[in-house]
Sequence to fold (134 residues):
Amino acid sequence: MNILIINCGSSSIKFQLFSMPEENLIATGKAEKGKNGETDFLLESQNGKNEKKWEGFSYQKNIDEILGELINQENHCLNSLDDIDAVGHRLIHGGEEVTGCMEVTDSLVSKMKASVSLAPLHYPPNIEGIEVVT
Fold:
């Protein structure tokens, strides 16, 4: 079982891909907003480091690039996106109603949207990351 963990922040997306239940780290990396608005990308896998840049920073483009590099045969991570069994998102805390590990549902996303004022720098990227992946 392969699990992709994503942490969408205000200026970066960090990720790790694990093979479970052994907890073997297959790949780790980030897509980070650079000083001039470009995206700096890094993927580290058993095949070494893969670094590149592109213009602009968007969650859709960055997640598409992450997924593309995870199935790029040169990186030796996955054969296809079907090899990802689950995606976990690291999210800002959900107040008193949303605690611990939870399944991402429409109800949870609605509660997050209602709580944006509590974490205006964190919730919008968290929500966008969820929406891009689903």
